């Protein structure tokens, strides 16, 4: 049977359409995916993301050495209370997963990884950690709620209390604060302001109820996907996987090349690819006609096939179809996407498409 | 989940509804059950007027936030009118599947007798509710 988060009974009671997602039964929507998308863009929405994998490395000093070798971004850039986004690579530079690493000071490091990749992630990390003599622990005793939207923080006033909220408001993006029982990070996957809160699993239902009572709309993973696509954020398994490097996935910015003497898994392969010339670019597409861009549709420059859509959807904010695509380096501003045997014109743009409720493309 | 299935319409196993008009044409759309399974609709590809179609031939596509799904002609005939309003407002199908959300009108001399009655269609819809992940309509994209 599929795993269930501590909030499963809440989702069922709200009439959510529940679907299998990476081995978990998760809410796709609670009635209208587009309505939930607008809630998070225009007001505030809460997402149950308790299915995500949380791993703690409690010993700061040896963990720092391990993670500097294990991750393509460099945790040496962190300081207590700071987070970074990074890829976990294999020796060929392929992406095993993408994750956020949090520096918890004396409490060590916390990684938040994807749910669907949990088994391969842990199987990859475990032997390296053992070789480095580093202990780690999966935190399946924690739940995770993302509260996102322009009104997210204001609405959390009644939930977290004035004192905690003042501290949360003072957090810069990609910073975290810990209270006695909550881990509150200024991170998210929507392109809006907001936080991701990790409470103990047993306290998650009460926290969820209080967030809803504060006027935050429950939102499903369907809206989460269109929000992240509009925000130009990659989805593991669609936009990158073990066969693609960060350099061909729009994630070159997450690779810490300096210091040059830091060895990390995948470095040699990435350096080789960089030196040889990165063969593909990762771009945004906007369909210029009616229709919907979908994953795996083929992209053409004139008659020449140049690549494929890795994530496509209808953008509720822009009211048109958008996509992320991997195309041959040097493609022009115009292209065509084949949809049901017809080639429809699309414009090549630089993501993101939407940030903080505002369209960034015409 | 219970969906609305009007008794005065005929149905197909692939979730189209068919209304017989007085002028010898039929109006076609997708059922409340189908729109519910698809979720919010964002695009409808409508057929060209004058196009001859065969029963079970794909002649329109409805795309929701999550998938594209074919709409099949329930009968042999010729497309004589299409719902242009769906171009700007595909969600009409979500809001009013049997009214404002109609998709096309077909001129046909075929009998409706072989199409499903409401009770028979309801049985199919109910069986699918048991397993929501499988929509009988094939070619459901990812």
Your description of this structure?
The complex is a heterodimer of chains A (362) and B (142). By secondary structure, chain A is α+β, with helices and mostly antiparallel strands. Among the domains of chain A are: 132 residues, Gyrase A, domain 2, CATH 3.30.1360; 116 residues, Alpha-Beta Plaits (2-Layer Sandwich). In chain A, the strands form five sheets. Chain A has a six-stranded mixed beta sheet, with helices on both faces. A six-stranded antiparallel beta barrel of chain A has the order 14-17-16-15-18-19. In chain A, a hairpin with a 2-residue loop joins strand 18 and strand 19. In chain A, helix 2 crosses helix 8, helix 3 packs across helix 4 and helix 5 runs antiparallel to helix 6. Chain A is globular, with a radius of gyration of 20 Å. The model of chain A has no long low-confidence stretch (mean pLDDT 97). By secondary structure, chain B is an alpha+beta fold. Chain B has a single domain, classed as Beta Barrel (OB fold (Dihydrolipoamide Acetyltransferase, E2P)), CATH 2.40.50. Chain B is built from four helices and nine strands, in the order E-E-E-H-E-E-E-E-E-H-H-E-H. A six-stranded antiparallel beta sheet of chain B has the order 1-2-3-9-8-5. Chain B is globular. The interface between A and B is medium-sized, with 21 and 15 residues.
| SSE pattern of chain B, N- to C-terminal | EEEHEEEEEHHEH
- Identify the CATH homologous superfamily of chain B: RNA polymerase II/Efflux pump adaptor protein, barrel-sandwich hybrid domain
What distance separates the N and C termini of chain B?
23 Å
CATH topological fold name of chain B: OB fold (Dihydrolipoamide Acetyltransferase, E2P)
User: Which pair of chains forms the biggest interface, and how many residues does each contribute?
Assistant: A-B, 21 and 15 residues
Count of the separate structural domains of chain B? 1
